[in-house]
Amino acid sequence: MRSAEAQVQGGGVTSGRARVRTRLVRRAPPLLWLLIAALSLVELWMIAVTLDRPAPDQWGFRGFEAVLALSFGSVGALIAARRPDNRIGWLLLALSVIAAIQAVVDQYPVLAEAANPPRPFAETARWIAAWIWVPWSLGLIAILPLIFPDGRLLSPRWRLAVVLALTAMAVQIGWIVLAIRPLGPLAPTVNVALYFELFGPIFAASYLPYLAAAGVAASSLFLRYRRAPAEVRLQIKWVAYAQVVVAVGATGGLSTATLGQVFFIGTIVFFAVALAIAILRYRLYEIDVIINRTLVYGALTAVLAGVYTASITLSQRLFVALTNERSDAAIVITTLIVAATFTPLKTRLQAFFDKRVKPTEVADAEKRRARGSFDWSADAAQTLALVTRLDEMRQRDTLTVEEYTLAKAALLDYTFGATPTVVEPSPSRMPAQVTGISQR
């Protein structure tokens, strides 16, 4: 009796803990999102009361940290609430909390110096702001791809990639801490571009572990893509496309030009949107169209820029050779050439990329047609109807067990791409009753 009571009590404790854990998991995403939103509002308040104060080393624009924190925090909260077993949502929430803390420490020094008398800990906030961007940026680039899209690593061996990412994070933070005061000569700054201006190749070398970790994460995504089914491949395409866009934007983000930095921030926000689409599978199939249009118009822009540059150079040289002076007519002629080549060039590029970048649904249908030799529809409803007809014919003994098994296996393989465990059927072995099902 005592052992039975102990078991009951132990089971009650276990179930109670499970209920508490379930309640915490359910409440944590909105609470963390509210924390992110509160910190973002604090930053916006700081900006509002110090608009007249200069921020000489500002990167991007004031308040960009709140934009990024709310973007990834909202996506993370949505994923964690709907799919709590997926670690991606929790990772995004953790990185967004760090970004929201960065939002506060970035703006606090301006607020502290504007007060009379000045508030304390302004230099401490500057020191933290100089390196706090590293964890969340490296988390997005080098850790998130390792567990995308199901929240798990490809295999236990990929834990070494996580160790590499954490090591790169430590190296980057350590270098910045050694470069800024009180240990280094540089005043703490949130503008990374200043490091490149002052230290050049030395600071660039500190990015090598960062780039290595990002490369390993990209290779993990590539291997997962090769092994994945069609829908998971679409999810990976969204993230891979967004990462390419971010990589292009990074060229402007590391410059001192404000426009380039703002463009980089925009690409990071697009990355958050792509993650939401990929994880939640909303409008998933549009990625092939987006990639197709990007390739077409990217190639079109590059070719037309080359045509314009070559045409205006040759035209100016021709006018100089004939009249010994430059002429605006060269610009008119070049514009006409570009306008004349736009439509035919776009048509040819569109046809070229259409052959190589096809929507996944079309590609899967072509594979099914290539594998199968029966005129059966790939539509799931019609497939169910055909299987039902096969069952009825088997019950009426119109089909033998072997004929029924072969026909059903071939139908499911043709429709869903599943590899049957039975011998592959051939049309010559199929009775007329079965091969004519789709016409009945």
Q: Summarize this, please?
A:
The protein is 75% helix and 0% strand. By secondary structure, it is mainly alpha-helical.
Q: What does this molecule look like?
A:
The chain is mostly helical. Among the domains are: 26-129, no CATH class; 291-361, no CATH class; 372-439, no CATH class. 75% of the residues lie in helices and 0% in strands. It contains 17 helices and no strands. It has helices at 2-49, 64-82, 87-114, 122-129, 133-147, 159-179, 192-199, 201-205, 208-227, 230-253, 258-280, 287-323, 329-356, 360-371, 380-395, 401-416, 432-435. The radius of gyration is 30 Å and the shape is flat.
Attribute tags:
about 450 residues, mainly alpha, 17 helices, flat
What is the strand and helix layout of this fold?
Blueprint lengths: L1 H48 L14 H19 L4 H28 L7 H8 L3 H15 L11 H21 L12 H8 L1 H5 L2 H20 L2 H24 L4 H23 L6 H37 L5 H28 L3 H12 L8 H16 L5 H16 L15 H4 L5
Helix pairs in contact: 1-2, 1-3, 2-3, 2-11, 3-4, 3-5, 5-6, 5-9, 6-9, 9-10, 10-11, 12-13, 15-16
Largest sheet: none
Shape from CA axes?
Answer: flat
Mean pLDDT level: 75
Question: Would you report the number of β strands?
Answer: 0
**What distance separates the N and C termini?**
67 Å
SS summary, helix count: 17
Question: What class, by secondary structure content?
Answer: mainly alpha
Order of helices and strands: HHHHHHHHHHHHHHHHH
Q: Enumerate the spans where pLDDT stays under 50 for 5 or more consecutive residues.
A: 360-378, 418-435
Question: Helical amount among residues, as a percent range?
Answer: over 70%
In terms of DSSP E residues, the strand content is under 5%
Radius of gyration: 30 Å
